C-alpha cells in the first residue's frame, strides 16, 4: 500500500451508474484495491430502478453518492460527480468495468513526473460477463509512436483515435475550463471532450501499462449502433461547428468523417450488426469523389476493428461492400494482419494460410485495376 504523503495529490474517482447493481460492487472493490493513496470515491446514481441505492447505502462512509432524479445519461452523471469532487486529479470508472490495482499509482506518478502533461492514459483489456479476459483484447499504448506535437495529437484524435473513459486520469482544473462532458451527446461524448481539451491547449501523455478492464455484455452502450451513430455524428458536427476550429483541421473534414465512419463500422461488426456495418463502410467511401487513398481506406477498414473481432467474416463483409481494387486491398491487408497475429502467437499453420491468402490479393487487385482502366478509364474504385 502506497502511503499518503504531503506531495501525493488527492484523486477523485467518479463512478456513474445506471441499473448496474450486478457489476457495481466489483468495480468498487477494484478501486479500494488500489495501491495508491489518497483518493475519494464518488458514485452518481443516474436514476437507477434496480438495487443500486441499497448497495450504495450499505457502504456507509467509504464513499459519497448522489442520486439524480431521472436518467440523464453518463455525461450528466460524470459532470455531477466532478462538481462535488475535492481532488486535484479526476479519474472515471464505469460501474461495469474494473481497474488493475496499480492504475492510480502508475498514472499519478506519470503526472507528477511530467508537470506539463494534463491527461495521461494507459492500456486496457476486455473481459466477458464472467470476468474472463477475451483473446487478443489487450491494448498497450506505445509512447514511441504517440504524437510529438499538439497539432499531431489533435489530428490523431480527429481521425477517430479514442481511449476509453476508465483508462485516464486528468488534472481537475482542465476539466473545469472545458465545461466537462457535453450533456447533449448520446455517444462519443468522451472523444468530443478529448478533442476540446486539445483545442484548449491541454497536453496528453501515455503509459504502456495495462490499467483497466472493460466488460463486454449486452447492456454496453457500444452495442446500440443507431445510438452510437447518432452520437458520433453529433460529436463531429459539434467539433466542426466550432468557430475557433483552425483551418488546418477544417480542410480535412471529409477525411476525418471517413475515418470515424470506419470506426463505427468496426463497432457494428463487433455488435453483430452487419447491415449497419455495410452502411457505415459505404458512408466512409462516399466522403470521397475519387479514390487516390484507397490503400489507406483498406488499411483503416481493418485497423479500426478490435483485434479480438478481426476475422475472415469481417474482411469478406467489408470487401463485398465495395468493388474493384479497394475490395482486393481490404482482403489483402486484412489477411496480412491476421497472418501477423497468428505468427506472433506461434500459430504457424494458420498464419501461413493467412499469408498465402494475402499474397494472392495483390495480383488479383492489379488485374482488376487494369481491366477497369481499359473499360471505364482511369477511375479504379467505385461503389454500389
Explain this structure.
The chain is α/β, with parallel strands linked by helices and 384 residues long. It has 2 domains: 11-217, Spore Coat Polysaccharide Biosynthesis Protein SpsA, Chain A, CATH 3.90.550; 225-368, no CATH class. The chain contains 15 helices and 8 strands. It has an 8-stranded mixed β-sheet with strand order 3-2-1-4-7-6-8-5, with helices on both faces. The protein is globular and about 65 Å long. The termini are far apart. Mean pLDDT is 80; it is low at 289-293 and 368-384.
List the helices and strands and how they pair.
Blueprint: E1 11-17, H1 24-32, E2 39-45, H2 52-57, E3 64-67, H3 74-83, E4 89-92, E5 98-99, H4 103-113, E6 119-127, H5 150-158, E7 168-171, H6 172-177, H7 189-199, E8 204-215, H8 225-240, H9 247-250, H10 253-270, H11 274-285, H12 294-303, H13 312-320, H14 324-344, H15 348-376
Parallel strand pairs: 1-2, 1-4, 2-3, 6-8
Antiparallel strand pairs: 4-7, 5-8, 6-7
Corresponding CATH architecture of the largest domain = Alpha-Beta Complex
- Give the terminus-to-terminus CA distance: 60 Å
For this structure, the quaternary state is single chain
CATH superfamily of the largest domain: Spore Coat Polysaccharide Biosynthesis Protein SpsA, Chain A
**Percent of residues in beta strands?**
5-15%
Inertia-based shape: globular
Q: How many structural domains in the coordinates?
A: 2
Write down the CATH topology of the largest domain: Spore Coat Polysaccharide Biosynthesis Protein SpsA, Chain A
Mean pLDDT: 80
Helix content: 40-55%
Total beta strand runs: 8
Rg measurement, Å: 22 Å
Uncertain regions spanning at least 5 consecutive residues: 289-293, 368-384
The largest sheet has its strands arranged as 3-2-1-4-7-6-8-5
**Number of helices, where a helix is a run of at least 4 consecutive DSSP H or I residues:** 15
Listing every helix as H and every strand as E from the N terminus to the C terminus, the arrangement reads EHEHEHEEHEHEHHEHHHHHHHH
Assign the CATH class of the largest domain.
Alpha Beta
Strand count, sense and barrel status of the largest sheet are:
8 strands, mixed
Amino acid at each position: 500500500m502506497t502511503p499518503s504523503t504531503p506531495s501525493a495529490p488527492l484523486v477523485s474517482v467518479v463512478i456513474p451508474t445506471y441499473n448496474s447493481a450486478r457489476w457495481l460492487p466489483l468495480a468498487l472493490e477494484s478501486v479500494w484495491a488500489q495501491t495508491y493513496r489518497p483518493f475519494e470515491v464518488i458514485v452518481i446514481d443516474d436514476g437507477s430502478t434496480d438495487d443500486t441505492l441499497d448497495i450504495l447505502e450499505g457502504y456507509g462512509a467509504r464513499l459519497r453518492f448522489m442520486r439524480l432524479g431521472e436518467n440523464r445519461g453518463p455525461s450528466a452523471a460524470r459532470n455531477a460527480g466532478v462538481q462535488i469532487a475535492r481532488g486535484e486529479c479526476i479519474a472515471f470508472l464505469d460501474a461495469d468495468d474494473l481497474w488493475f490495482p496499480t492504475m492510480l499509482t502508475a498514472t499519478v506518478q506519470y503526472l507528477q513526473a511530467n508537470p506539463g502533461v494534463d491527461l495521461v492514459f494507459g492500456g486496457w483489456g476486455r473481459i466477458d460477463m464472467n470476468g474472463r479476459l477475451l483473446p487478443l483484447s489487450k491494448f498497450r499504448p506505445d509512447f514511441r509512436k504517440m504524437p510529438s506535437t499538439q497539432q499531431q495529437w489533435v489530428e490523431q484524435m480527429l481521425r477517430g483515435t479514442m481511449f476509453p473513459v476508465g483508462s485516464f486520469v486528468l488534472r481537475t482544473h482542465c476539466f473545469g475550463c472545458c465545461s466537462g462532458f457535453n450533456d447533449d451527446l448520446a455517444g462519443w461524448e468522451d472523444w468530443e471532450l478529448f478533442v476540446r481539451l486539445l483545442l484548449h491547449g491541454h497536453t496528453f501523455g501515455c503509459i504502456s501499462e495495462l490499467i483497466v478492464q472493460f466488460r463486454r455484455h449486452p447492456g454496453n452502450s457500444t452495442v446500440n449502433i443507431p445510438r452510437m451513430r447518432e452520437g458520433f455524428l453529433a460529436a463531429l458536427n459539434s467539433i466542426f461547428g466550432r468557430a475557433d476550429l483552425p483551418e488546418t483541421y477544417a480542410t480535412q473534414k471529409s477525411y476525418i468523417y471517413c475515418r470515424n465512419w470506419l470506426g463505427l463500422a468496426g463497432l457494428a461488426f463487433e455488435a453483430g450488426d452487419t447491415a449497419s456495418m455495410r452502411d457505415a463502410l459505404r458512408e466512409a467511401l462516399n466522403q470521397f469523389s475519387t479514390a487516390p487513398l484507397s490503400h489507406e481506406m483498406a488499411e483503416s477498414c481493418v485497423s479500426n476493428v478490435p483485434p479480438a473481432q478481426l476475422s475472415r467474416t469481417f474482411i469478406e463483409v467489408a470487401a463485398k461492400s465495395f468493388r474493384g481494387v479497394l475490395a482486393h486491398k481490404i482482403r489483402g491487408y486484412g489477411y496480412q494482419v491476421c497472418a501477423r497475429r497468428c505468427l506472433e502467437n506461434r500459430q504457424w499453420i494458420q498464419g501461413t494460410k493467412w499469408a498465402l491468402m494475402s499474397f494472392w490479393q495483390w495480383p488479383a487487385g492489379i488485374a482488376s485495376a487494369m481491366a477497369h482502366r481499359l473499360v471505364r478509364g482511369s477511375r479504379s474504385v467505385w461503389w454500389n
